[in-house]
């Protein structure tokens, strides 16, 4: 949660480019490519699938409002801002989107009176006018957005947990959770402690031992037993805890409550105590490491590197009060068999709606999922008009997803941030391939029922028109600056540009393992460069009708009527500047010109041409190698 030592992040973070699925699978300098599997991007008949659209604008004139439906059509025309969605390339599964149901949030929801059923239905139901929250985070004991400090066993020395009790949760948390589960029985819940019982801690700094300090090694085993007792108590109430983290923000000693747990301490606690006790008690509850900012990925990597802790750990959880969202990919790449989760980000009151909408959608809904996160959780679900309740020293300016005033609610920016994903991307979905194009930040998913979802944000300062390509079909849409749109459609992807990475900058390497060069736009192109500079980089541009164009330094590659050496000197795209992108069975690609002949690197010794009627090694190219 937000505390005074955090700095507000900039309004935009650099997004990590999606992994390219068309990478070369073999060394072409040794063997010629297998052409039998070549696809040429033949355009199939369009099915004209209907696309439903929901939009939120920065000026709040539209708030998750359904717009007029549009239809896919046979792809035609060009648009330099083209988002290509490819459902055949998949990434991580999705567990859900939601908030933290803090103790304060539960109390406010429990006080809604006759309006409670309607509000809970709107938040957790999946019908019309409901946003389908599918993942919740709760605290084990008090968080800083509880009305007071407490743990479940404050009897000093009670190592066997004889006095353990979750009775304090019977007032609000458990009744509300039971009602939520009745609406959505499959909702996932992750539980996290802000502190151990104070008698288990050493070197505390205030609030009767609730603030700061660390876990006394003498009580590691007792604290693991505390977790097991918690899982058993919640199970007895019919509440399944899907995952736990050992400590919220383990490097933050300033909150109330809080507790510091260094990475080696967390690894030791997991491998020697927490993991064995949870598994020994028969629970399959996931243990997720870290649960803090992305600027310290060395923390989860230390835990995962521990051979004893690693088998017990499902993955790592992150917040974004410091660091960059792309760091999630660094952790994924280091431990690709472990999962990544995003578990908290506050909205500071009173909130700049447009700025918060853009930043959170860009960095979390889009950014976290494009960087392998299986979920996205905003911070507190609810607060009152004065941003209460909270502990003494807890967050006093945390804006809830909704504001609860007596028995009425107001929907805040967090509601719409989460709703643009949770309403449409359901648990069991997978992220699918899409490219970032111009100012249109985006992420795409495929639900288990086959429906596709694209969440798009115009992060620019002016209105933007963009094309969405899906196989051989496309539609064009315009988004105002700062606006967010969710597109949803069904159907099966038809053939299209054969996997061309529209909107991405690539390099092309020939059979001789040297790079294709635009030769400063003044000479015939060659395939002779040992390194890739600016003229050896090409932007893949949508040329319409299933074809692409290649642009380097603002100039387009031309096949020069198929009679002369090819050049990179055209200011605009005509017929001779369009190519069909083909993908070979080994991952290399071919480029076929308007004369139906292939571009050739001409043994790497002469100027390149577009005159070959068949494709072999010298007419095939590796991408981004």
Low-confidence stretches: 2-46
Based on CA inertia axes, which overall geometry fits? elongated
Strand content is 25-35%
Mean pLDDT score: 91
Q: How does the major sheet shape up? A: 10 strands, mixed
| DSSP, total strands | 36
The oligomeric state of the chains shown is single chain
Q: Kindly state the percentage of residues in helix.
A: 10-25%
Task: List the strand order in the largest sheet.
Answer: 2-1-23-20-19-18-4-21-22-3
Q: Span from first to last CA?
A: 42 Å
What's the alpha carbon Rg, rounded to whole Å?
27 Å
Category by helix and strand content: alpha/beta
Number of helices: 9
Describe the structure.
With 625 residues, the protein is α/β, with parallel strands linked by helices. It has nine helices and 36 strands. The protein has a ten-stranded mixed beta sheet with strand order 2-1-23-20-19-18-4-21-22-3, covered by helices on one side. It has an eight-stranded parallel beta sheet with strand order 13-12-11-10-7-6-5-14. The protein has a five-stranded antiparallel beta sheet with strand order 24-28-29-30-31, with no helix packed on it. β30 (555-558) and β31 form a beta hairpin. α1 crosses α3 and α5 (263-280) packs across α6.
């Amino acid at each position: 949660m937000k505390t005074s030592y955090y700095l507000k992040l900039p309004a935009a973070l650099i997004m990590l480019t999606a992994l390219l699925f068309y990478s070369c699978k073999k060394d072409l300098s040794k063997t010629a490519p297998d052409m039998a599997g070549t696809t040429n991007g033949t355009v199939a008949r369009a099915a004209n699938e209907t696309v439903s659209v929901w939009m939120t604008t920065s000026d709040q004139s539209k708030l998750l409002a359904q717009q007029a439906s549009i239809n896919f059509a046979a792809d035609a025309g060009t648009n330099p801002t083209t988002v290509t969605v490819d459902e055949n390339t998949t990434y991580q599964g999705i567990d859900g989107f939601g908030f933290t149901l803090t103790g304060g949030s539960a109390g406010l929801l429990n006080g809604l009176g006759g309006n409670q059923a309607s509000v809970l239905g709107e938040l957790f139901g999946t019908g019309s006018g409901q946003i389908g929250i599918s993942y919740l985070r709760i605290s084990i004991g008090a968080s800083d957005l509880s009305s007071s400090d407490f743990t479940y066993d404050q009897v000093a020395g009670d190592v066997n947990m004889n006095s353990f009790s979750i009775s304090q949760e019977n007032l609000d948390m458990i009744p509300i959770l039971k009602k939520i589960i009745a609406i959505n029985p499959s909702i996932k819940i992750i539980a996290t402690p802000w502190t151990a019982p104070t008698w288990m801690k050493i070197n505390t700094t205030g609030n009767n031992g609730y603030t700061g300090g660390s876990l006394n090694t003498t009580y590691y085993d007792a604290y693991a037993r505390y977790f097991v007792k918690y899982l058993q108590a919640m199970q007895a109430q019919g509440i399944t805890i899907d995952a736990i983290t050992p400590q919220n923000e383990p490097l933050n000693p300033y909150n109330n409550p809080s507790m510091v747990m260094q990475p080696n301490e967390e690894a030791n606690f997991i491998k020697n105590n927490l993991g064995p006790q949870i598994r020994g008690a028969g629970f399959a509850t996931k243990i997720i490491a870290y649960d803090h900012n992305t600027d310290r990925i060395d923390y989860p990597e230390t835990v995962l590197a521990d051979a004893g802790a690693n088998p017990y750990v499902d993955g790592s959880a992150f917040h974004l009060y410091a660091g960059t969202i792309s760091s999630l990919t660094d952790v994924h790449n280091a431990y690709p068999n472990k999962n990544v989760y995003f578990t908290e980000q506050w909205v500071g009151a009173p909130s700049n709606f447009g700025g918060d909408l853009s930043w959170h959608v860009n960095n979390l809904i889009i950014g976290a999922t494009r960087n392998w996160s299986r979920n996205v959780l905003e911070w507190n679900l609810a607060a009152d008009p004065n941003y209460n309740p909270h502990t003494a020293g807890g967050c006093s300016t945390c804006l809830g997803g909704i504001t609860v005033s007596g028995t009425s609610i107001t929907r805040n920016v967090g509601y719409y941030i989460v709703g643009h994903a949770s309403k449409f991307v359901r648990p069991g979905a997978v992220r699918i391939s899409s490219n970032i194009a111009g100012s249109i930040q985006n992420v795409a998913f495929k639900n288990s029922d086959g429906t596709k979802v694209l969440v798009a944000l115009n992060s620019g300062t002016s209105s933007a028109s963009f094309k969405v390509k899906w196989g051989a079909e496309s539609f064009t849409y315009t988004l105002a600056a700062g606006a967010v749109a969710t597109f949803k459609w069904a159907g099966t992807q038809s053939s299209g540009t054969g996997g061309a990475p529209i909107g991405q900058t690539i390099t092309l390497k020939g059979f001789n393992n040297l790079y294709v060069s635009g030769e400063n736009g003044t000479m015939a192109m060659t395939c002779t460069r040992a390194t890739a500079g600016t003229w050896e980089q090409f932007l893949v541009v949508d040329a319409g009708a299933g074809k692409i164009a290649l642009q380097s330094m603002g100039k387009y590659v031309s096949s020069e009527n198929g009679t002369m050496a090819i050049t990179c000197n055209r200011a605009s795209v005509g017929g001779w500047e369009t190519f069909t992108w083909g993908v070979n069975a080994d991952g290399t690609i071919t480029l076929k010109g308007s004369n139906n002949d292939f571009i050739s690197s001409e043994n790497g010794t002469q100027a390149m041409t577009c005159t070959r009627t068949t494709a072999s090694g010298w007419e095939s190219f590796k991408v981004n190698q």
